């Protein structure tokens, strides 16, 4: 598609006009009048209350929305009464239209929206009530026109002859943003595709207030109903009554109504049996059996609610079956006992505290965002630190127990040396949850005591502080007891997913209670479970002690003192014994449509997947992963779960080929491709969060005929949806999106829309030999180049461009300014691209750097120049007799208004650099295209009049004479607000996006891909080199 086809504004306006005619044609004048009246009420109320709140420093404005079947007066009376019980109400207005409630009000003093939400949650007349601040009220009520969102592109009523040139959307890497949700669901309103079994212990405990418990469960029911998003979430409710686990739900629940009914059934079976403990093993067995019967291929979670301790040792290992286990309840002493059998626990002092905190909002999202169950982990090992070959203590995955001898065979002086040694030793390792190193601490004399568990020792500060609290106690020495204590802790606190285990014994090693033979026997037990045991003396071990300890452990693991040589030796021995795991950060995704296509088509595509993946495996190093994604208009399904090696992947694909019933369970009759792409992007984003070195490509098998795809909207609208959806997928895959196209005849089934998802050279028609067709593309070549290393930052050379970077920042943002500077530094500025820096907004519009200044050093100085402009020191000239240092004015966040006069000033300043009178080889070059990059965190404050003035200024300044080249526009936004898309595209940059420093472990493939996408967009876009506007009213 050419640029002129993609950005034909006149066609967009005609389409929008026709769409509007259809929209209003469905309503009669009475309904329209009612709607207009309601909107006018809401707008006037919002304006009034926001104005009141802003005129009174001690006031806060709010908008509350919900649903009610009651009359307006009843709703108003109740809500106002609830507010007056806690706050001073300055002003208040309510409107109820078609059961939709909108209440706007202001309250005295500074009040948080969350507190108001809690207050209004007691309403009996309004359901699904949500509260937001007044200054966000209009955002709740309107659809944001943001480039790259799933909303349709904004249209303009401006003169159809006025046209700006924008960089084609398909060439840009953007993120998908959506309008603020009216209801806050779990996981930041992200639909969680999980099956959750909730087991509630309904037995009574003598000291428990059962009425409080039942009220708490009722409240939890309400929060679950409001928090989960159905039908993506499925819930099976169970109860523990007496000594049995009963099924409350007859089947998996995926609707609000059914979940409410299931909880009603739960409350009806409330038992009167008093018990002292919970049979947790039976609970887990029962849950696993439920997953095996109905949900064998869907990730599962078991949430248990109880107020009782464990009654016995738990042998059922649910986590090894890939099930996330979480326990919540009352009584920290009880609930802590479940820790070693669970992925997450949360305990509370009372049932009221539990329902107020809502532990489910943490459990659901914790499972969603980062499953910790070993068998469910996408990758068997954590992130590689720097590249494919790094091997250092920073990337090891270790469980270390340090045993301090505090007996009388030492002294306080020696123990302090041990403490310092241990603190320095653990500091060289990396701690992040359970991804890397964990450290447990025990102290021993003739008894051994654990003072820090491995589960708690996954934070360096906690570990170092605990070591610092070890004190000399005196007493006898029993090294054997310490060794056996460590073995017991490894057995209970570590598992086979963390086989790298180290014990460091800081002691003279000489027994006074036990014998060396006892120590040798205990050492053998540690060896049997894979523990490397190191002994560290305080001065030196004599030969006899060395000989004895060399039988307890490997003789190379015995070090006589805490010297630097011992420190280095222990570190190296551990690294040799337990080297860093090889990172599985390269993944091949195969996305196969299973909708209205016949079984023969689906099976054929799956067989092609097996063939292609076999060839792809020969181009990597056997550490890569493979994933199959099936999609249609419902949810996506990812296979396999857990081990994603090639054998397990092909086993999962073959299972779908062989099992027609299972294949049928994945089928849906329609396809919503843009939604499927968004879901796939989310899946890849989650992998990138777990592994910053994540890189992937994706190969789709499916059709994209316009007349078949949903939703049933115009072709241009579908294209806009697909472009917006695919933009984020491009960021995650570095543009490596390929398609085996099953689309049918255009005349009968409509236009093939795959070109809206990826480039045409990466779309091949389905054939009898798909592998051979792919070999003619760059599919296998690019796959073979993927690795755990971050891609290099792209450069743009030999491209003639004259660029203005125009910046408006309300807040100090050094990282953003450095990002812009780094962006510009990727161009060969000396000979090819010339840059001019302008600042506007909070101060007088100023040209900080002219097009004539385009050396690398001048570009590096841009962020410094802007800071001086922003704090005012740029405008200050020091007196000759004083210091040459400029005054250190502070950055302020004083509000200011960007209006039409401001924009007029910006274009006037641009006129001093670009256009007639500025043409020369060191300025605006005659045949170099012009690009204006606007960067801001303030676009949300720009009114429609401001955006309209962009069009007016461009038309007036570039439309009526021939010499200036028509500028193209690109907007970089630090918020979710962007420019009118008829002017140019907006790229949205979050704090995470700005991290492009590949020397640390936080920058991701997606970050670098997005940065490179901007470079590529600017470098390869087809810019005009002359004015394209028709001359209007010119003589």
TrEMBL record:
Pfam families: VWA. Residues 399-574 form the VWFA domain. PANTHER family: VWFA DOMAIN-CONTAINING PROTEIN. This is VWFA domain-containing protein. The chain crosses the membrane at residues 32-53. GO terms for biological process: defense response to Gram-negative bacterium; innate immune response. It comes from the Eukaryota. The keyword Transmembrane helix applies. Signal peptide: none annotated. InterPro entries: Collagen-VI/PIF, VWF_A, vWFA_dom_sf. The keyword Membrane applies. Keywords: Membrane, Transmembrane, Transmembrane helix.
């Amino acid at each position: 598609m050419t640029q002129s086809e993609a950005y034909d504004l006149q066609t967009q306006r005609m389409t929008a006009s026709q769409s509007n005619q259809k929209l209003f044609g469905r309503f009669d004048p009475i309904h329209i009048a009612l709607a207009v009246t309601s909107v006018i009420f809401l707008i006037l109320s919002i304006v009034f209350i926001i104005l009141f709140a802003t005129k009174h420093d001690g006031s806060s404005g709010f908008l509350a929305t919900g649903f009610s079947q009651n009359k307006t007066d009843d709703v108003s009376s109740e809500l106002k009464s609830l507010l007056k019980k806690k706050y001073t109400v300055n002003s208040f207005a309510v409107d109820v239209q078609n059961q939709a409630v909108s209440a706007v009000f202001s309250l005295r003093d500074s009040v948080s929206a969350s507190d108001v939400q809690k207050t209004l949650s007691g309403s009996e007349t309004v359901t699904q009530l949500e509260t937001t601040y007044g200054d966000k009220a209009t955002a709740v009520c309107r659809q944001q026109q943001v480039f790259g969102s799933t909303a349709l592109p904004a249209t303009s009523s401006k003169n159809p002859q006025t046209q700006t040139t924008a960089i084609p959307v398909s060439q840009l890497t953007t993120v998908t943003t959506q309008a603020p949700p009216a209801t806050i669901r779990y996981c930041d309103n992200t639909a969680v595709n999980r099956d959750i079994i909730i087991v509630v212990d309904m037995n009574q405990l003598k000291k428990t207030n059962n009425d409080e418990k039942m009220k708490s469960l009722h409240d939890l029911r309400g929060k679950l109903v409001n928090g989960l998003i159905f039908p993506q979430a499925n819930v099976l409710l169970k109860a523990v009554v007496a000594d049995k686990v009963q099924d409350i739900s007859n089947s998996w629940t995926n609707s609000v109504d059914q979940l409410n009914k299931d909880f009603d059934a739960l409350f009806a079976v409330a038992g009167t049996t008093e018990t002292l403990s919970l049979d947790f093993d039976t609970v887990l067995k029962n849950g696993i059996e439920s997953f095996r019967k109905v949900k064998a291929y869907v990730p599962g979670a078991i949430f248990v609610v109880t107020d009782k301790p464990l009654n016995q040792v738990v042998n059922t290992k649910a986590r090894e079956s890939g099930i996330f286990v979480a326990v919540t309840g009352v009584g920290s002493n009880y609930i802590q006992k479940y820790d070693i059998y669970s992925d997450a626990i949360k305990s509370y002092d009372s049932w009221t505290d539990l329902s107020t905190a809502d532990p489910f909002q943490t459990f659901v999202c914790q499972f969603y965002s980062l499953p910790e169950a070993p068998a469910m982990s996408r990758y068997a090992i954590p992130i590689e630190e720097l590249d494919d070959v790094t091997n250092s203590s920073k990337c090891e995955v270790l469980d270390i127990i340090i045993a301090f001898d505090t007996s009388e065979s030492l002294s306080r002086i020696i123990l302090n040396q041990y403490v310092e040694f241990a603190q320095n030793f653990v500091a060289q390792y990396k701690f992040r949850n359970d991804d890397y190193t964990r450290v447990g601490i025990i102290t021993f004399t003739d008894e051994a005591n654990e003072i820090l568990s491995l589960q708690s020792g996954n934070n360096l500060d906690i570990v170092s502080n605990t070591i610092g609290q070890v004190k000399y106690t005196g007493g006898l020495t029993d090294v054997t007891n310490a060794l056996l204590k460590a073995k017991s802790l490894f057995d209970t606190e570590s598992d086979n997913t963390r086989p790298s285990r180290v014990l460091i014994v800081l002691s003279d090693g000489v027994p006074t209670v036990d014998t060396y033979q006892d120590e040798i026997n205990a050492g053998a037990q540690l060896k049997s479970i894979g523990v490397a045991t190191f002994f560290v003396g305080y001065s030196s071990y004599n030969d006899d002690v060395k000989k004895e300890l060399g039988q307890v452990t490997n003789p190379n693991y015995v070090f006589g003192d805490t010297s630097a040589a011992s420190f280095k030796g222990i570190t190296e021995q551990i690294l040799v014994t337990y080297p860093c795991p090889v990172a599985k950060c390269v993944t091949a995704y195969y996305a196969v449509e299973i909708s209205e296509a016949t079984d023969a088509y689906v099976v054929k595509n799956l067989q092609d997947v097996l063939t292609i993946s076999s060839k792809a495996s020969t181009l990597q190093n056997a550490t890569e992963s493979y994933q199959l994604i099936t999609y249609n208009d419902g949810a996506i399904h990812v296979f396999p779960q857990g081990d994603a090696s090639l054998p397990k992947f092909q086993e999962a694909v073959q299972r779908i080929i062989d099992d027609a019933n299972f294949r049928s369970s994945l089928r849906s009759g329609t396809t919503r491709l843009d939604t499927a792409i968004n879901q796939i992007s989310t899946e890849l984003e989650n992998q990138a969060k777990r592994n910053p070195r994540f890189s992937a490509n994706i190969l789709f098998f499916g059709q994209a005929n316009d007349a078949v795809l949903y939703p049933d909207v115009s072709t241009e609208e579908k294209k806009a949806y697909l472009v917006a959806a695919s933009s984020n997928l491009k960021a995650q895959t570095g543009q490596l999106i390929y398609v085996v196209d099953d689309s049918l005849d255009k005349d009968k089934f409509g236009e093939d829309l795959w070109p809206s998802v990826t480039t045409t050279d990466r779309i091949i028609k389905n054939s009898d030999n798909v592998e051979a067709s792919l070999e003619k593309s760059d599919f296998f070549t690019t796959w073979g180049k993927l690795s755990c290393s971050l891609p290099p930052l792209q450069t743009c050379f030999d491209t003639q461009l004259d660029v203005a970077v125009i910046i408006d920042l309300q807040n100090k943002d050094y990282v953003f300014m450095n990002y812009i500077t780094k962006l510009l530094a990727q161009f060969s500025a000396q000979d090819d691209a010339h840059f001019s820096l302008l600042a506007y907004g909070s101060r007088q519009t100023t040209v900080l750097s002219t097009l004539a200044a385009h050396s690398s050093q001048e570009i590096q100085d841009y962020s410094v120049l802007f800071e001086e402009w922003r704090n005012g020191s740029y405008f200050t000239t020091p007196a000759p007799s004083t210091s040459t240092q400029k005054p250190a004015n502070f950055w302020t966040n004083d509000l200011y208004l960007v209006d039409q006069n401001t924009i007029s000033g910006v274009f006037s300043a641009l006129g001093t650099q670009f256009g007639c009178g500025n043409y020369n080889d060191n300025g605006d070059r005659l045949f170099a295209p012009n690009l204006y990059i606007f960067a801001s965190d303030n676009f949300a404050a720009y009114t429609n009049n401001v955006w309209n003035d962009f069009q007016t200024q461009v038309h007036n300044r570039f439309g009526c004479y021939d010499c200036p080249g028509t500028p193209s526009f690109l907007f970089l936004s630090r918020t979710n607000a962007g420019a009118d898309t008829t002017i140019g595209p907006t790229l949205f940059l979050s704090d995470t996006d700005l991290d492009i420093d590949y020397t640390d472990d936080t920058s991701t493939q997606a970050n670098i891909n997005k940065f490179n996408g901007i470079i590529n967009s600017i470098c390869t876009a087809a810019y005009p080199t002359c004015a394209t506007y028709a001359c209007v009213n010119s003589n």
